[in-house]
């Protein structure tokens, strides 16, 4: 089973060159049942990565382009009147899928954001008094642009906390970008994925089975205490207004198990906990104003916390 996920990551790296860390983060989040924010400037293959991943696991995929005029009903669905039968018929929205890409989530108003995030948290939707469960796989990846803030609606902290990871997509290195250009010369076009004749490497059922295996990865008490000490240190850090929440602690535990499982281990090590600290914490912590004025960054604070808390031996 693990070999299939290693092949999945390798295939993603072959097609989307230069974004290996992002591909791995997406797979860890998928196994840990956690939603993801992909943040990066336009043109860095955020949408392509998610579309490819959905296709390679044979999952149903929907994409929503979020804009200021998108309403909750456009995502969740609504009842429409059928003139033939003279009854109301439930029309499900795009959220009823397995892999959902919410493009530019910070460009849609808070009411629509809240409806989407509530469905993500509850894994169900209530329409006209009827509760409808979402897919067992249901996984959301939201994108946002870190540069353009005019006409945007930044997610509040309580809603950001519902995402397991925030993965920052940067420009690829020069060698990787050259390979990308060579691929383009050879005929590769992101808009025409059908031409690649991609065969799924994993089924949805295998992903669900892998999630159950991840839950069985052993976490020794000493590692659990280490994780808890890191959470407590974030809450007591002198440069932070807000530390990690209990939801973040649970997510950290699940993601550490997924990281260990991918490394072909039946137990979690402190290195697994440390490896995912930055994507798990960087959207949850809030710097104090004076720390921001001093030029302190959240990645620096996170690395400082990891350096300060003693690693168990």
What's the pLDDT, averaged over the residues?
91
Low-confidence stretches: none
How many beta-strand segments? 11
Assign the structural class, choosing from mainly alpha, mainly beta, alpha/beta, alpha+beta, or little secondary structure.
alpha/beta
Output the number of helix runs.
14
First and last CA, distance = 30 Å
Oligomer: single chain
Instruction: Give the proportion of residues in helices.
Output: 40-55%
The biggest sheet amounts to:
5 strands, parallel
Order of helices and strands: HHEHEHEEEHEEEHEHHHEHHHEHH
Rg calculated over all Cα atoms: 20 Å
Spatial strand sequence of the major β-sheet: 2-5-8-1-9
Portion in beta strands: 15-25%
* Net shape: globular
Written account of the structure:
This protein has 313 residues and is α/β, with parallel strands linked by helices. 46% of the residues lie in helices and 16% in strands. It contains 14 helices and eleven strands. Strands 2-5-8-1-9 form a five-stranded parallel beta sheet. A hairpin with a 2-residue loop joins strand 6 (124-127) and strand 7 (130-133). The radius of gyration is 20 Å and the shape is globular. The two termini are 30 Å apart.
Question: How would you describe this structure in keywords?
Answer:
313 residues, 5-stranded parallel β-sheet, two-stranded antiparallel sheet, 16% strand
Furnish the topology, listing elements before pairings:
Elements: H1 2-15, H2 20-31, E1 36-40, H3 46-56, E2 61-65, H4 72-76, E3 77-82, E4 87-92, E5 99-103, H5 110-122, E6 124-127, E7 130-133, E8 139-144, H6 157-160, E9 165-169, H7 174-185, H8 204-215, H9 221-236, E10 240-242, H10 246-262, H11 270-275, H12 277-281, E11 286-287, H13 289-293, H14 298-308
Parallel strand pairs: 1-8, 1-9, 2-5, 5-8
Antiparallel strand pairs: 3-4, 6-7, 10-11
Helix pairs in contact: 1-2, 8-10, 9-10
